[in-house]
């Protein structure tokens, strides 16, 4: 193999694929990236056996061939090369991949291409295409609520499925960790109708989120009962799905909450952030005291002191005291897009419903804390 290409193109492709490679691996080949030069292209492939990312870019190929080298080592080398430089990589009779750029020369240990695992995708039953911005919006609004508790593995991802809502088919994303729930939706693209409900793992969600940052691009999504594939331009990410049943989340979305508070999102978020400075890492509880037209936020920490702040709100129901985890409140506030937010309360022990006035179909459910 002998191939020459621009450092910037090489770095961009390596940045996409090396992220799925774990820093520590008990299987040596999983630390490597597969390089395959053929025709006028160079293809990169990396995997952790759950996710596989490939990217193909243009390159000057003098001799076709393939090998595997350490993904993070190669990325770090290319990252430190000067801007605008050319990089030549070759595999000859000598052991090791030879990399030459200007006056710099490196020889990297290789493992044979034949050892590199292939994540067999199988047949995909559904395919649809949508704007990257639309899918990224669904992920951004729900990702924070993904559970990190490994015992409830079926909550360790985002649940994507289609629903009928007011005569339209919607693609809905839901995530929950048992303490809070986030839901977002957009009109389902052609081809999504009848798709199976799938749980996309947390790590895959993070990688896809980075791929979707390409402005004005489209993503092609292919899925089956066990795999999902995202294609954005020249990057293809294939992932296993979580093999489990997502709980019936509709049962935890309250329908009888009749005490509404309307408040400016930024004002509320900033006030919660200020008073929570005094809260302990373990407790993080902030108390909301509501009376006619006024909200008092208060935090009491025996180790460091107390804090209180009053805000004018739209509220005309009975007086109410309720507590929440301040970090969870801020996480939700950061996802809201409208200037005004609606909180629907029932009582101090029941879940609260939070609606984003600027995003149809977006809602959040937050369990209260004892304060």
TrEMBL record:
SUPFAM superfamilies: DNA clamp (SSF55979). Residues 1-119 form the DNA polymerase III beta sliding clamp N-terminal domain. InterPro entries: DNA_clamp_sf (IPR046938), DNA_polIII_beta (IPR001001), DNA_polIII_beta_C (IPR022635), DNA_polIII_beta_cen (IPR022637), DNA_polIII_beta_N (IPR022634). Residues 133-248 form the DNA polymerase III beta sliding clamp central domain. The keyword Cytoplasm applies. Signal peptide: none annotated. Confers DNA tethering and processivity to DNA polymerases and other proteins. Acts as a clamp, forming a ring around DNA (a reaction catalyzed by the clamp-loading complex) which diffuses in an ATP-independent manner freely and bidirectionally along dsDNA. Initially characterized for its ability to contact the catalytic subunit of DNA polymerase III (Pol III), a complex, multichain enzyme responsible for most of the replicative synthesis in bacteria; Pol III exhibits 3'-5' exonuclease proofreading activity. Forms a ring-shaped head-to-tail homodimer around DNA. This is Beta sliding clamp. It comes from Pseudahrensia aquimaris. The gene is dnaN.
